[in-house]
Amino acid sequence: MIYLKVLISNHKITIIYIISIFLTALFLSILTTFNVSYNVVSILSTLINVIFVFIYAYLCSQKQNCKGYKSGVKSWLKITLVLTVLNLINIRLFSFHFRLIIYYLLLLIISISGGILGKNNQKKLS
């Protein structure tokens, strides 16, 4: 039980990110039941995830002692791992498409930007 408390306290931001991804998936699935276009749901999903990635990298970079871009890359690796695992859990087969590579590169750029801004604001607050 002690290890679970330590795990939760050390990875609180990551757990919040995973929960927010599940809530976003629930929201988007509700939208699809109301016959919202697939293109609208896809664009909305991408925008919401980009915002979550930026916030995640921003918050993680304020707690780390490395440079902002390194913190952004670390955050991106965690996010990519989470998204890959969630994609593997999905019923459809996991395959890399050109769009998925572009999507992960977009998340990398957003994560690095969030990490750099988080580090810059950390120095101003200290």
What does this structure look like?
The chain has 126 residues and is an all-alpha fold. The chain has one domain (2-125). Helix content is 85%, strand content 0%. The mean pLDDT is 81.
For the structure shown, list the relevant keywords.
126 residues; mainly alpha; globular
Short note summarizing the structure:
The chain has helices at residues 2-10, 12-33, 38-63, 68-89, 98-125. It has 126 residues and is an all-alpha fold.
Name the structural class: mainly alpha
Q: Can you write the helix and strand succession as a string?
A: HHHHH
What is the number of helices? 5
DSSP strand (E) fraction?
under 5%
- Percentage of residues in helical conformation: over 70%
Distance between the termini: 35 Å
The count of domains is: 1
Q: Please give the number of β-strands.
A: 0
How is the biggest beta sheet arranged?
none
Contiguous low-pLDDT stretches (5 residues minimum) are none
Radius of gyration: 16 Å
Q: Which whole number gives the mean pLDDT? A: 81
Shape: globular
